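Tutorial, part two.
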Amino acid sequence: MSHPTPPRSFDPAQQSIRSKRKQRRARERLVLLSMFTTLALILLCAFILVIGLIADAVRSRLPAGFEPETNEESTTDEPAPGDLLYAQITKQRSAIHTGELILVNADHEYVFPNGTAHLVNIFDKRTKVNGANPYQVLFDTMLLQKDAFAAFERMMLRYYELSDDGSILITSAYRTLKEQEDLGSSVQAGYSDHHTGYCVALKYFDRTDLGEDHWIYENCHKYGFIVRYPNGKDAETGVSDYVHCFRYVGVAHATYIAKNGLCLEEYIDLLKNNYTSEHLAVTGADGNSYEVYYLPAGTGDITTLRIPSNYEYTVSGDNSGGFIVTVNLSAPLA
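Running the prediction step on this input gives:
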């Protein structure tokens, strides 16, 4: 027959000892936890310090001016206004012979493209104003490059609106090789800027000169035209007494050339010699902000060009050894 276990008697002294033991063990665990945490922080700080020292050592061994490549597609930061993001395109090397900034003179022969699809007939496309012609054309077969013609139309329509004068005559525009030969000019066939279709010669209908104080001389840069052969630039252009020849180059370039008193030869040299890494900043007569830079062509058949991916741009050859990129900072791409 089992007997019930008698209840354990309460001993205050023993209970106090057990309570103190528990408190001591808790304090010991807290101390250990603090020690481990402190040690972990010390190790983390040491690790960060070592990484920083390694990075400094690596940077100190890099050549001056070195910038690591970045993957533009992986960034999530938005570029600041005016900052250019770049992409790459390829062009045939032969493209150096095309564009509104090609230089054709005694040292740079024009390379004729196949066909005349890039040209328009001035006589057929001329806009009439209330049935009247705002300017005259010497021959009904005269041609101009499409962009040059569009800009010329805007200029002449504006002049006619202001003056009601329709007496200005186009005496020369695009020329074929044979037309240049038949002129008997001192400029050899193949080396005339008129071959490009970007040039137009202007006089009054009675063949008198406009005069360099004429509205067209003072305002042509606003429409992308320059005086192709300015007085006093014979040594650079190789042509004299032809100040009534106007050449389309685009508003940004025409503005800079006119403001700085340059001829086309001087402007191309300026870009080629000074703006391959730096960019030329231009505020165009149209109010837009531009950046212009020069990229030498490669020696192979294909050339890779570094162009902006976040702003509108154009690329023109120089008819010599490279390309000119014009970025319109006032026209960001969506």
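The longest helix spans residues 12-60. In part three we will examine how such features are distributed along the chain.
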